[in-house]
Amino acid sequence: MGDTALTNQIKSFGLEAGLDLIGVCSVESLPTLDLLDHQKNIEQIMPSAKSVIVGASRMIPAAVEASSRNIRFSQFSTMGLYQELNRISYRLCRFLDDKGFRSVAVPTFLPIDMHNNYGVVSDVSLRHAAVEAGLGTLGTNRLLLTSEYGPRVRLMAVLTNAPLEVDAKADVEYCDGCELCVEHCPAHAISTDGTVDIRKCSRVVLRYALPGLVRFARSLTGASRSELKDAFRGAEFAEYWQNLSTGIFYSCAECVSVCPVGKA
Asked: In this structure, are 121 and 201 located in the same domain?
């Protein structure tokens, strides 16, 4: 049995700090996935961890809607949202620390283990933790869908040894199978059966991140001095510099933008 009063204090603190949604699940409830063993990873990170506090903050709808016409505004908005989530995560850890509990924040998106499947799998899946904490369900696009905001949220999580009361999983499926995400995916990475080809997706969504940078470097093999000069003065190389400088790489938000769940 978890501590109800402490759990309510933590949830109130998270909402006051800026979260739109917050829930709790047990470490034991996290599933073992094909490329991710939650129990093994958390044992390495924090052996005493019992609970996972999961929070979500909404994305700005107009920025998401502009992504197909001008991705830079969605990227900038996302960067600000991640900074906000990082701040909240740290504050929540301090809150728990002040109460005598151990805690550690899960990285919201970077840094992650780049040796693990090209860096597309984190130590803890925020989406799956959010499902276990009752924040929503997974859609055909394999993103978390919430009743209030659909997939237009970003997530944070904190591992802790605090004895918290866990939330029940959502008892409804928010995805109605409309397949708009399948239809609008420029990478053709989403299948109607709910599987997503990560490699296909990464070629588009991470166009100017590591996969794109590798392709760019390979294209320069055997290039002449003048060809190298042109390449490093070109717009493509400037995009790599810009993305590496800001740390925001996502070059596509179509499956987020077109999803009807949570739209007013």
From this structure: no
* pTM of the predicted model as reported, rounded to 2 decimal places: 0.93
Q: What is the dihedral of CA 131, 129, 166, 163, to 10 degrees?
A: 180
CA distances from 238 to 71, 121, 213, 227 (A): 15, 27, 11, 16
Helix, strand counts (H, E) of the chain: 11, 8
Q: In the chain, how many domains are there?
A: 2
Going by their DSSP bridges, the two strands 51-58 and 153-160 should be labelled as antiparallel
The pair phi, psi for residue 5, each rounded to 5°, is -65, -45
Task: Please check whether residues 109 and 141 belong to one and the same domain.
Answer: yes
Q: Looking at the structure, do residues 214 and 124 belong to the same domain, yes or no?
A: no
> What are the pLDDT digits (tens) for 90-116?
999 999 999 999 999 999 988 888 777
Q: Is residue 172 a part of any domain in this protein?
A: no
* CB-based contact 17:92 (threshold 8 Å): yes
Helical residues (DSSP H) of the chain, grouped into ranges: 4-17, 38-45, 61-65, 71-98, 126-132, 180-184, 198-205, 210-219, 225-233, 235-246, 254-257
Asked whether residue 154 falls in the same domain as residue 237, the answer is no
Closest of 259, 24, 244 to residue 141, by C-alpha: 259
The CA distances from residue 23 to 11, 103, 168, 172, in Å, are 7, 16, 9, 17
The answer to whether residue 175 is domain-embedded is: no
In sequence order, the β-bridge partners of residue 56 are: 21, 155
Host domain of residue 90: 4-160
Q: What is the pLDDT of residues 113-147, one digit of tens each?
A: 877 766 678 999 999 999 999 999 999 999 999 99
